[in-house]
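Memo subject: From amino acid sequence to discrete backbone structure tokens
Action wanted: Derive the backbone structure tokens from the amino acid sequence.
How to read it: Take the token row as a discrete description of the fold.
Attached in line: The record itself begins immediately under this heading.
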Amino acid sequence: MFTNAQTAGFSAPDTVCVGSPVQLQNTSTGITSYFWNFCSGSIYSNPELSSLGNLGGLLKDPVFTAIAKDGDNYYVFVINNTDDRLVRLDFGTSLLNNPVGTQLGNISIPSNAEGVQVVQDAAGWHIIVVGGTALGGSRVVTIDFGASLANNAPVGTDWGNIGNMAYPIDLYVFEDGGKYYGFTCNSENNTITRLDFGDDFTQPPTGINLGNLGGVLNAPTGIFAIQENGNWHLIVTNERDSKLIRLDFGPSLLNTAPAVVDLGNPGTGLNHPRDISLIRECGQIMAIAVNGREPGTASGGAIGRFVFHGGITGNVTGEYLGNPGNLFDLPHAISSIFRVDNELYAFVPNARNGTLTRMSFESCTDASIPSSTSASPPVYQYNRPGRYTINLITDEGTATQQTACRNIVVVEPPAVDLGPEVRLCDGSAATLDAGDGFSTYSWSDGSTGRFLTASTGGTYAVTVTNGGCSATDEVELFISPPMQFSADIMQEIDCRHTEGAVQINISGGTAPFSYSLDGAPGTDQPVFSAVERGIHSISVTDDQGCIITDDFGMTEDAARLLTAGAVIQPPLCDDSRDGAVSVQVTLGTPPFEYALADGAFQSQPDFTGLPGGAYKVYVRNSYCIDSLELELTTPAPLLAGIAKTDEICGRGDGEVNLSPSGGTAPYNITWENNAAAGSVFPDLSAGTYHVAVEDANGCRTEEDVAIINQIYPNIRIRNEDITINIGEQVILQAENAPDYQWESDPVDGNLSCPVCATTIARPLRDTRYIVRTLTGQNCVPADTVNVHVTYLRSFFMPNAFSPNNDGQNDYFKPVSKGVMVFSMQLYNRWGELLFQQNDPYQGWDGKVNGQPQPVGTYVYVVTYGLYSDVGEIVLQTRKGTFTLVR
């Protein structure tokens, strides 16, 4: 008889730094022996995969496993999907041993079998199996082993389809009130079925289909039950839309109206998931899901890891862990997660390559002391950051054995850097930043924030902590003395000096200095000799980076300046010589002299009789000389602006349109030597016509206009009259026009593009098609063609095809005539949709996402419609199988 005085427990810090000592406090009572593991394996570890292979060639498309212990022996039962066999793997006394496999035969195993569970009751051991597509027949089967799972001749009972199952995938069996129940997820009709086996497994079960709960189930494949705080929950994986669904049943799984929560795809850890397994890990609920594909492919497989923060109803985070070692090939399920010593394990069957993979989460080697048996655990440390699990096992192997665990987060030691010394100008301040991510901050002035603002010189220090570790840094702050400057004008601006000169004098600051005029790049010279008239900005920067800025003015010597302007008279026409220039002095001391270009200077400021063009005029006195750049701009050349339209096909529809420009408006127009009231002359036949235009200044231009007769080819349909069968189409092609407009008689001619040169017609009866041009000038603007329609009807689906690119039977499609409505879907043996098409003339090439599919049997579902004898479309549906051969 044992008492309950023994209690296993200990305290540990939540967070420590890499290399920092970890001190655990043992709070256990009544304990005689201890085993501490400071780096235990957990779901937080990176998973490792090892392949057990095909185990004697017994596995053929393995899909689900079930683990059971009978006496000292461990067994794993594997369901083969395609050969209707149950395989038993005998691991002996440890699931880490190499197993011995036994094929137990069919035993009523359904075709396309999937989920499996092992149950022990008063009558012995039973294995429950579900599976079968809706087309082949979905079923639930009980296999009775009697008193021992080592029985090589178990008896199977096929109970048929219970609860409207449609390709049931995963299975969960449980006991409630002395009766046995099961949940299975139906991938083909997106529902959940609950099975009732009664108080034993000898009578036919009953079932209820709970439907598509919340309308969120989408090809459900995996199911896992968990109880927390007295309430039951089911976690379901959707294969088609890669989602997690939580069903909340309350205190009993017999509730028929659970609350539904769509958890989405946390952290994009799901990619066509097949199954999920949950585990409580040191007070935390975690899950591992197996994905049937790798991203961007239709093959491979991957692992997703999920954490339910605060419990099963809390926030869920996830991460994608990939395919370690590339050992997954369509992983179809994951067993329950089990612990052996300090490591966690699970089995994963690979349906595509027929192998069994063992997944492990092994203990780490990051603790300086891996384990201890002392009542007072030693001080140790971790050499890498991460999340670690500490396990304590007390009185191991006795009836009073207990366990306790704690999670500890290890972070990198803090490192703080205030940077190099800081130099400031008088009156400014520096913001010192100790960086983010630390638990506490302590500055030399007593402040405790991340930032410190400093405006006086001196040494500043900060100490930061993180996870019990600390680091310190300091920085020196220097303040520069204030600066002043003055500007001395060395040269003013006059007519001989277009720019002045200035010297900058500086006091204070720290030499050397950099000088900048009006924002230009700095120079070490204080004299500027190319300064224009006006207000200028000077900026001086000292060696500490301190800046002072001020303005000064550059002035002119008015007594030594000369400026002049001019009044100009442009020529009247673009080729006349009646322009003039008159120079006017606006600033300067007389007397003045004037010259035009290279001519001699004269006392008069006027120049006449000039043609249009560019001129340079000079004016001077005794000290200065100035020049003017002038332009005598003539009117633009007078143009008649003739736009003509030639005659088309001898129709007398030519036209001349005048748009006079240049010269000086208004304009007078002469047509064929006669004054014209307008500028448009229509209805012209081919010939030559004379036109003249005169502007307001008497400038004149004349031209002859030639109108020609343009001949354009007739619009033409290239097709001859043709006969086709109902449902067929004909390509109509027109030519010789810039645009097209197709019509049909009768109007239901079914044209694919009424405004294209080439269009596709699919008439329902004898039809005449007419094409016209809307804007073309064709001499004959329309053409017609007749299409006669026959009414032959037939439809045949082949039973095989060979996509080997030999030009014969390379595509799977119907052989038909007169098909007006068509829809075809193709599936593989797992019920996955591979191809769909709405055109009876377009078939499947045997590939999915560019990858050739394997030789075998596939399923088609076809809906098509033929015209009846009374002109109606009659829809029909066909289902069947066909073979892909190569």
